[in-house]
Design goal:
Strand content: 5-15%
CATH architecture of the largest domain: 3-Layer(aba) Sandwich
Helix content: 40-55%
Structural class: alpha/beta
Number of helices: 15
Bound molecules: 4'-deoxy-4'-aminopyridoxal-5'-phosphate
CATH class of the largest domain: Alpha Beta
Largest sheet: 7 strands, mixed
Distance between the termini: 50 Å
Number of strands: 13
CATH topology of the largest domain: Aspartate Aminotransferase, domain 2
Oligomer: single chain
Length: 399
């Protein structure tokens, strides 16, 4: 049977990683990678996580299953982090959380849930988006389509195009929105734009699915939840997928959640019963180590402030790197061209570099990024910033 199996091409990001590893240029820089890196180029274990792990090692008494919805303590702590401690949906007992293997697992739960309960609905996704969004909905057999998001000519958020597209979506369909730190562009909506989006969602009775993978990486843990909480307040039904990969640095521990806000407790329980079945037929129970770490940190008066401080450090490092990048391009007369980099949010940036410039950066300077010009801001540091900007100036001049 295997002889007939079609060989599929590798993920383009994997190809980029392989090419980077093979490159012998001592000055090479990897801006393609999708994880946070510190000033030394490492993706460290956070101190709060290490401390929580040592507590768990001493205190854990079982490795038994945690159930299809996951660890209740994790839900108890993650729900207020996402929705706010004073969330009406929490007080009214109409929010359900199902723990999932990462944000990806949560999105797959969402996709399977949509397929099971609303097979005729399409999911509308920003163009561009994190490419795995397409793959996840395709794998679940859910139809999807795109709405506009970026003006690729000017490399700016194209909010009028987004709004116009949302206004054309058939009533009742699902709209996938990035809560903050849009991946891959870094362009986020402002509060006024979010209000307008909410209005369209209300008018057309569209169901939002909010991908919340970078809480704390934009403006702050509370600030980044503003849009999620606005939707939760204004709309009767909302789906949210949360990831603890970036803000707890728990990438490989696969820690995330699918959250559903329903009109009332009865509807919430119906949705929850579906999610249990979806989880069971996928992987039965989610992994417990990451969720135990998150619950331990968020439930501890000592560890929670330490974790918040570490999230702030990561966010500030990214924002400083964004500003320094634009500053360092000033002497080359390129500060205006790349000014958007200082205004974008989160780890990723649509730099505006063209595919041929990206190719030249890779070939001549050992600087690797996705061909769309998406850079991971955390991929460079103060030491190689000068080299990076000199190289960018060189390819921009040439083209
Ligand atoms: N959504 C977006 C927009 C992402 O960028 C990512 C991670 N790259 C995820 C979801 C999923 O993250 P994970 O499965 O690692 O938690």
């Amino acid at each position: 049977m295997f002889a007939q199996v079609e060989r599929l091409p590798a993920d383009p990001i994997l190809g980029l990683i392989e090419a980077f590893n093979r490159d012998t240029n001592p000055n090479k820089i990897d801006l393609g990678v999708g994880v946070y890196k510190d000033a030394q180029g490492n993706t460290p274990i956070m101190r709060a996580v290490k401390e929580a792990e040592s507590l768990l090692l001493a205190q854990e008494t079982t490795k038994s299953y945690i159930g299809s919805h996951g660890d209740p303590l994790f839900a108890q702590h993650l729900l207020p982090l996402v929705l706010g401690a004073d969330s009406p949906a929490l007080q009214e007992n109409r929010a359900s959380l199902t723990q999932a293997p990462g944000g990806t697992g949560a999105l797959r739960l969402a996709a399977d849930f949509i397929k099971r309960t609303a097979d005729n609905k399409k999911v509308w996704i920003s163009n561009p988006t994190w490419p795995n969004h397409y793959a996840i909905f395709k794998a679940a057999g859910v139809e999807y389509a795109s709405y506009g998001y970026v003006d690729t000519q000017s490399n700016e958020l194209d909010f009028p195009a987004m709004l116009a597209d949302l206004q054309q979506i058939p009533e009742g369909d699902v709209v996938l929105l990035h809560a903050c730190c849009h991946n891959p562009t870094g362009f986020d909506l402002n509060q006024e734009q979010w209000q307008q989006v909410v209005q369209v969602l209300q008018e057309r009775q569209l169901l939002p699915l909010v991908d919340f993978a970078y809480q704390g990486f934009g403006e702050g843990l509370e600030e980044d939840a503003w849009a999620v909480r606005l939707l939760a307040k204004q709309l009767p039904e909302v789906m949210i997928t949360a990831s603890c990969s970036k803000n707890f640095g728990l990438y490989r521990e696969r820690t995330g959640a699918f959250i559903a806000l329903a009109r009332n407790q009865e509807d919430m329980e119906k949705v929850r019963s579906q999610l249990a079945v979806v989880a069971r037929s996928n992987y039965s129970n989610p992994p417990a180590h990451g969720s135990s770490i998150v619950a331990t940190i968020l439930g501890s008066q000592e560890l929670k402030p330490l974790w918040e401080e570490e999230v702030t450090e990561m966010r500030q490092r990214i924002n400083t790197l964004r500003n320094d990048f634009v500053q360092a391009l000033q002497p080359y007369g390129l500060a205006d061209k790349f000014a958007c980099v200082a205004q974008q949010q989160g780890m990723f940036s649509y730099s505006g570099l063209k595919p041929e410039e990206v190719a030249q950066l890779q070939k001549e300077f050992g600087i690797y990024m996705v061909s769309t010009g998406r850079m991971n801001i955390a991929g460079y540091n103060q030491q190689n910033l000068g080299y990076l900007c000199e190289a960018i100036a060189s390819v921009c001049k040439a083209s």
